[in-house]
Automatic annotation (TrEMBL):
<dbReference type="GO" id="GO:0005737">
    <property type="term" value="C:cytoplasm"/>
</dbReference>
<comment type="function">
    <text>Forms part of a macromolecular complex that catalyzes the attachment of specific amino acids to cognate tRNAs during protein synthesis.</text>
</comment>
<dbReference type="Pfam" id="PF05746">
    <property type="entry name" value="DALR_1"/>
</dbReference>
<protein>
    <recommendedName>
        <fullName>arginine--tRNA ligase</fullName>
        <ecNumber>6.1.1.19</ecNumber>
    </recommendedName>
</protein>
<dbReference type="GO" id="GO:0006420">
    <property type="term" value="P:arginyl-tRNA aminoacylation"/>
</dbReference>
<keyword id="KW-0007">Acetylation</keyword>
<comment type="similarity">
    <text>Belongs to the class-I aminoacyl-tRNA synthetase family.</text>
</comment>
<keyword id="KW-0436">Ligase</keyword>
<dbReference type="Pfam" id="PF00750">
    <property type="entry name" value="tRNA-synt_1d"/>
</dbReference>
<feature type="domain" description="Arginyl tRNA synthetase N-terminal">
    <location>
        <begin position="32"/>
        <end position="120"/>
    </location>
</feature>
<dbReference type="InterPro" id="IPR008909">
    <property type="entry name" value="DALR_anticod-bd"/>
</dbReference>
<feature type="domain" description="DALR anticodon binding">
    <location>
        <begin position="490"/>
        <end position="598"/>
    </location>
</feature>
<dbReference type="InterPro" id="IPR035684">
    <property type="entry name" value="ArgRS_core"/>
</dbReference>
<keyword id="KW-0648">Protein biosynthesis</keyword>
<keyword id="KW-0067">ATP-binding</keyword>
<keyword id="KW-0030">Aminoacyl-tRNA synthetase</keyword>
<dbReference type="GO" id="GO:0048608">
    <property type="term" value="P:reproductive structure development"/>
</dbReference>
Length: 598
């Protein structure tokens, strides 16, 4: 991030929601379009009862752009059943010959055991990009089988500071929500806040002790909740009398006693305001349905499971045994109280039956994998979820690894405390601000906005570009580097393209004559299927990789094909523009705010 000659300016340009009116304009992803074409061919090639789905994959660029891989598996199905075909090769040939005429396809060839290779027509690629520029990138959006999903993410715990683990959950969950929404799925974003449990007895008792006139105490007096939590924990651990009162307070709270409910609500509200500030800075939309929300559903849900014979008695607790696991899933504790698992079962029941979700996605650290595996299995045993793999409704645990510090150990500050999220964001912003030179044309507000866009974008991208399951090292110098695979580099690349196309009048025709133009064009067209892949595998890094490759394809094109002042200027400016549009959509899906001017 070298500041002297580079200045970014945030314009007020907003990404508008799709204005796509007529459905005819919706074309779907490139892969889906190819699949449609091959489906037509398969229907004439093989008997209807086989009901085969086209298998389309990218292919070795030496042979083409894509290939259809159905011949081999079809052969194994029809072999020896009196078919006219004598092997996979002839099937492949038939698939190729039966392909309806389409301007998509330039030429086809057969390779190996009946693969049908396709070279796409570059005129068609050019036309598709041009249409996208006119009708909007939403016309490319993939359509998933699922229509309604719940994403359970962020989910911090009341009275405890949101830490870097919750940061991961927040940004991974948010980007998954954005990608699914782009893929025409209705997404219910749910904050499963830890707002219930025995720790509230301790907190409430401490509140009463500190403020005997609790009815009139205001939030300022309570102050920093984290400190409040620590102090109350200390009382709890060191004073048996206090401990007993705290346990009694839990009973009163659960019994619904007014004074206790009120104190609980007040503590939650202070916490909530803290989270909201973080969400606002990161542009996160999420609806809170905390653990307490599901309390009323727990008894009947457990009763249902009991009736189905799932619940057993074990060492005074009520549990569900899970095949292959040494310890059972406890759903009612020895003292009769409910726990994390009982709440999650009730929440799942609610999401399936009340919210009608077909796909429920939980974003937490990998440490909770066991918990999710166990209660998903319980739900299958109860018949809430189908036993098969790719059937709906389904649940997924989206686990992620640790954030490490420079020393390779769990990321902590010097005082060995967990890192506070707000401090991280403050530092990202101030580091960016320090290097963005304050020139005359910058207002303080613009400077702030740009520093936030770049700083928060860098933090998000550094997280999302890794496969979520791996641990990653948090390093400001690395993530704020303006070279390499960082948000800063990509944001600059985008801003630079914007400065090129400012000269464009946005008319004319795209022609992909040079190989680097075609390569860029094809990569642009692959955007939607990448989003689809990232959605189905729940892997945001797939989109990051695509974005980084896009900027590489663009660089190659830009250094080998003169844009401004060339005979092909109009076409090439349009290609620049399409690149900027796709980059911006990637940024949007990754929750990164683009900047426009260098
Ligand atoms: N509050 C939990 C934690 O901080 C995460 C909750 C995840 N969601 C769920 N439905 N269990 O670890």
């Amino acid at each position: 991030l070298r500041a002297t000659s580079r200045r970014l300016l945030l314009t007020t340009k907003v990404q508008t929601v799709s204005t796509m009116a007529a459905n005819e304009e919706h074309v779907g992803s490139l892969k889906q379009q190819l699949a449609k074409l091959f489906e037509a061919s398969l229907r004439t090639t093989v008997p209807d009862e086989l009901d085969v789905e086209p298998l389309i994959a990218a292919c070795n660029p030496r042979f083409g752009d894509y290939q259809c891989n159905n011949a081999m598996s079809l052969w194994t199905k029809i072999k020896g059943k009196g078919s006219e075909f004598t092997g996979p090769q002839p099937i492949g040939k038939a698939i190729m010959n039966n392909l309806p005429h389409s301007e998509m396809v330039d030429k086809c060839s057969i390779a190996g055991p009946g693969f049908v290779n396709v070279v796409l027509s570059k005129d068609w690629i050019a036309k598709s990009i041009q249409k996208m520029l006119i009708n909007g990138i939403e016309t490319w959006s993939p359509k998933l089988t699922v229509k309604r999903a719940v994403i359970d993410f962020s989910s911090p715990n009341i009275a405890k500071e949101m830490h870097v683990g919750h940061l991961r959950s927040t940004i991974i969950g948010d980007t998954l929500a954005r990608m699914l929404e782009f893929s025409n799925v209705k997404v219910l974003r749910r904050n499963h806040v830890g707002d219930w449990g025995t720790q509230f007895g301790m907190l409430i008792e401490f509140l009463f002790e500190k403020f005997p006139n609790v009815e009139v105490v205001n939030d300022q007096a309570i102050g920093d909740l984290e400190a409040f939590y620590k102090a109350s924990k200390q009382r709890f651990d060191n004073d048996p009398g206090f401990k007993e009162r705290a346990q009694q307070a839990v009973v009163s709270l659960q019994g619904g006693e007014e004074k206790y409910r009120k104190a609980w609500a007040q503590i939650c509200e202070i916490s909530r305001r803290g989270y909201q500030r973080v969400y606002q800075r990161l542009g996160i939309k999420i609806e809170e349905k905390g653990e307490s929300f599901y309390n009323p559903y727990i008894p009947r849900v457990l009763e249902e499971l009991d009736k189905k014979g799932l619940i057993e008695e074990s060492e005074g607790a009520r549990v569900i045994f899970i095949e292959g696991k040494n310890i059972p899933l406890i759903v009612v504790k020895k003292d009769g109280g409910f726990n994390y698992a009982s709440t999650d079962l009730a929440a799942l029941w609610y999401r399936l039956n009340e919210e009608k979700a077909e796909w429920i996605i939980y974003v937490t650290d990998v440490g909770q994998r066991e918990h999710f595996e166990m209660f998903f299995t319980a739900a299958k045993r109860a018949g809430w979820l189908p036993a098969g793999e790719n059937m709906y409704p389904k649940t997924n645990h989206v686990g992620f690894g640790l954030v490490l510090g420079e020393d390779g150990k769990r990321f902590r500050t010097r005082s060995t405390e967990v890192v506070r999220l707000v401090d991280l964001l403050d530092e990202a912003k101030s580091r960016c601000k320090a290097v963005l030179v304050k020139a005359d044309e910058w207002t303080e507000e613009e400077l702030d906005q740009t520093a936030e866009a770049v700083g928060y974008g860098a933090v998000k991208y550094a997280d999302l570009k890794n496969n979520r399951l791996t641990n990653y090292t948090f390093n400001f110098d690395q993530m704020l580097n303006d070279k390499g695979n960082t948000a800063v580099y990509l944001l600059y690349a985008h801003a630079r393209i914007c400065s090129i196309i400012r000269k464009s009048r946005q008319t004319g025709t795209i022609v992909l004559a040079h190989p680097d133009e075609r390569a860029l064009g094809l990569h642009l067209l692959q955007f939607a299927e990448i989003v689809e892949e990232a959605c189905t595998n729940l892997l945001p890094n797939v989109l990051c990789e695509y974005l980084y490759n896009l900027s590489e394809f663009f660089t190659r094109f830009y250094s080998n094909c003169q844009v401004v002042g060339s005979a092909e200027e109009t076409s090439r400016l349009l290609l620049c523009e399409a690149t900027a549009v796709v980059m911006r959509k990637c940024f949007y899906l990754l929750g990164i705010v683009p900047v426009y001017k260098i």
